[in-house]
Each structure stands twice: as structure tokens, then as C-alpha cells.
Amino acid sequence: MGGQDSNLSCLLEVRNLQKSYGTVPVLHGISLEFRKGEIVGLIGENGAGKSTLAKCINGLESITAGELLVDGKVVLHNSILLARELGIITIPQEFDLEEDLTVAENIFLGREPTNRLGLLDRKAMERQAAEYLARLDCHLPPDTLVHDLGVAEKQFVEIAKALSQDCRVMILDEPTTVLNREEVERLFQVMRNLRNQGATLIFISHKLREVREICDRVVVLRDGNLVADRPIDQWTEAEMARQMVGRELTELYPPKHIADANAEMLLEVKQLTSGKTVQDVSFSLRKGEILGFAGLVGAGRTEVAECLAGLRPIDNGNICFNRKHLNRYSPKDAVKAGISYLSEDRQGSGVLLGFSVAANTTLVSLKKYCHPFLSRREENQQTEKYIRHFNIKADSPERRLDELSGGNQQKVAIAKGLDTAPKLFIFDEPTRGIDINAKSEVYRFIHDLLERGISCILISSDLEEVLGMCPRVAVMHEGRLAGILDGDALTEENVMLLATGQNVE
Ligand SMILES: Nc1ncnc2c1ncn2[C@@H]1O[C@H](COP(=O)(O)OP(=O)(O)OP(=O)(O)O)[C@@H](O)[C@H]1O
Ligand SMILES: [Mg+2]
């Protein structure tokens, strides 16, 4: 009986699973069991094969060799529909939402509730959508167009969509990258509830602290191989990082760069106001200086960046950049003036997935390579430099971006911004979704930029990152600048006080 019990408790199993894209092998024979009522962390460097494994399990990709078993029976599914019937639901790494449909329509797409006449019952659909969102403590009106949502809200719609389906296995592919701490807490509560009801959850993440916090077991992939599988009490964050990379890691942050106090002023922002989201914001930045921007999601940090990048109209105040007043200007003018903006919404406005790595890298700086005709050779040479520098997993500059893993796409987005040779670089959540090794490369890169006299603004929800990189941090709260902290006053506690609208002694 005991043996049978343990069989029963194994809900999902992969046996010697192999997956190749074309002739390129990505997964080299993975064997793993997933039991009922457990949360399994799946970690590994960018391009290790985590999302691919998820897609093989949920039927989005076909398996090249090996077996997939559900309830001890071999299934040969390569369709999402079948996976869904088996109760395998995924929250994908890249949003899979229809922008022109409403929140409720997206949640119930293809499964719309109908009335007795078989017609769409919109009221019921919106009521149910609101209920699923409420489980996440999210109170979005269900008739809002997805197009009008921010990234965190889109993530909640994805989660609500998953919750609305009968689910026995839920795969969450980096669900927390766009969520703040309090939102993560809400998601974790929902995950724990599902686990306690007997579901299996697979949690893919680069946030090792969260993996440590929520998972019962952690599995590590390295270059398409399974290298470790242990219960949570046998893991520390450092050990996870070491297993992912396969060697000891050096210090994550380079020494803090302190700009010359007499360096020339590059940027002076006075009483900047844009709609309700940015109100009366003033700050300045010298050459070679880095300023961090902290605050809760929705505090207006991205909106300030968008004003600077020419993406958002300025209602009031003024911006003096490199001794010139910039007031009414387009994104093109901003690039020309020397402002480069790495957007937080990579998918929405950052890169073109259907185009090559090279085309994306030179998207904004293309002119440099035209004399007067485009030199593909130069474009490719430059792209290869970035591929080496950031260790981008792409075998050629011609590789299409949608064939790269999510984290590697993020690295291309950074290369694209750098190729414009800016005077000011605005990074908005630059390390979202990239692994710990690539993170330290990005930090070193920012450090190099500062040494070369380029100024940076670093917007990040990762407080540790802001404090690790910036000697001066602007904290926003509800569209206003709550304060700028430096020296001894720059502590995690003070940032949180300002970010939540309280005062600092
Ligand atoms: N459609 C595709 N065509 C060709 N190669 C692909 C395709 N999708 C993924 N790959 C390759 O498979 C490898 C694994 O990618 P995968 O997306 O599984 O990585 P990951 O572990 O999820 O990484 P990340 O942390 O960056 O999300 C990568 O080298 C990637 O370039
Ligand atoms: Mg991935």
C-alpha cells in the first residue's frame, strides 16, 4: 500500500526528457517527479532551459525524446488544450494577453460564461472576473481594456486567468518580476492555498530570496541539465547561486562610484509636473553621477523617466540638460540630445521580437551604420561585441529575438540603449528577469559608464540593488518626490518610510 500511496502522490513526472530546437539541443534528458501539495522552485541561469521545460510540460512545445507522465500514465500531449484538460496551467514569462480586449474577456477567453440561450453572459463574466481578482486583493474594474494596464496589473490578470481554470499543476514562470513586495505577498498566499488544496506548483524565478521563502524543494538546471534537486532545508541563497553558475561567485556589486563634487551639472529638473502622476519634482544630476529612484510601484518613477525621454507631455516645470532647455521634445530629440531610456516594459516598447539581435541592437542607432547604405558587416561586428560582453546566449547576431530566452532578450534591450552613446542613461528595472551572474555584469557595466563620465538614473523596485549601486537615492510617493537620501541617512528603513508617505527624523 505504501508504495502505491507514494505513486499516487506523484502527480507529474518527466522521464529523460529531451528537447531540441531544430538541431540545437536545449534540454539533455531531464528526469523529475512532482508530488501533490508541493511548491517546487525551478532555477538556473538565463538560457538554462527553465521556460523550455515549462513549455514541454504544458504542451506549448513538443518533446523531442523522453516521456511525460500524469497520474502515472504516459501522455503524449503537444497541445495546450490537452494540457489544460489535465489541469496543467501556466502563467507565462511573457504576457499572453489580448491588448484590445477587456480584463474579463482576457480571463475567460475561449471559456466565456453563457446564459440559458447560449449567449455570452457579460454580467456573470465580469462578476466572476472580479471575484478571481479579489482573491489577489486586486480591484481592477473588469471592463478595463488590457491595453490601458500597467505591467503589474497585467500580471494580476494572467494570474486571475490561471486561477479561473481548474488547476492541478500550476507553472509560474517568473511571476513576481513586476510585482512589489506587498503584491508578492498576496501571490504567495494564493500559492500556499493552492498547495494546501493538493495542487503542485512549479515556481520559476531569479529572486532567490523568494524561492527560499515559498518553495518546499528546489531544482537547478544548468545548460539544459538537472544538476541539483534537494528539499528546501538543504538550501541557502548562496548555495543556489553557486549551483546555478557552477562556481563560486564574486561580490555582486562593484564599489560605489562617487562622482566628483565639482563635476559639471548635466541635468537640472525643476518643478516637473505631468498630469496627476508627476507633481512638482525637482532634482539635479552631475556628470558621471548615479541617482537611484526608489518608491512603490505606481509612485511615478517611470513617469518621470518618460518625461525625460520625451515620451510624456510636460505640463509644467522645466528640464535643463547639457546647458540646454528641453521642454517640448520628442523621443527622437531626447536620443539626439543624449538621453537613452531603457523601458521597464521590454515587450511593450523595448524590443521587436520578430527581428534579429543585430536589428534590435541598432534599432535606435541605425544611422551610425549607414554611409549612406546600411553596412550589415559593421552592424554585426558591433552586435557581436555586445553578445560577448553580456554573455548573450545567441549563436549569431542574425538570431531572431523570439528564439532567445527572456533574460537574454533583456540583455539585448540594454545593448540597444548603450549603442546610442548617451550622456544620460535611464535604467528602468534593468535587471528584471536576469540571472545573478548577468546582474553583476550589468552592475559592472553601469560602473564603467560612470567612470567614463556618463550619468545614470537607476529606477528599481529591488531596494538592495538601489542601495548597492547608488550613493544618492530619490524616493517618490504618490507622484511627488518625498525626499533625496544620501550618506548616513540612506538606509533601507528611511527609504521605506519616505516611500510610504511617512517622515524621516
Ligand atoms: N523558439 C526557439 N527557437 C530556438 N531556440 C530557442 C527557442 N526558445 C528558446 N530557445 C533557446 O533555448 C535555450 C533555453 O531557453 P529558455 O527560454 O528555456 O531559458 P530560461 O532558462 O527560461 O532562461 P531565462 O531565465 O532567461 O528566462 C536558450 O538558449 C534559447 O536561446
Ligand atoms: Mg525563461
List the keywords.
binds magnesium ion; Rossmann fold; binds adenosine-5'-triphosphate; 18 helices; 6-stranded mixed beta sheet; alpha/beta; 20 strands
Describe it for me?
This protein has 505 residues and is α/β, with parallel strands linked by helices. The protein has 2 domains: 2-245, P-loop containing nucleotide triphosphate hydrolases (Rossmann fold, 3-Layer(aba) Sandwich); 265-338 and 422-499, Rossmann fold, CATH 3.40.50. The protein contains 18 helices and 20 strands. A 6-stranded mixed beta sheet has the order 6-7-8-3-9-10, sandwiched between helices. It has a 6-stranded mixed beta sheet with strand order 16-17-18-13-19-20, with helices on both faces. Helix 5 packs across helix 6 (151-163). The chain is globular. Mean pLDDT is 89; it is low at 1-8. Residues 21, 26, 44, 46-52, 93, 393, 403-408, 435 line the site of adenosine-5'-triphosphate (ATP).
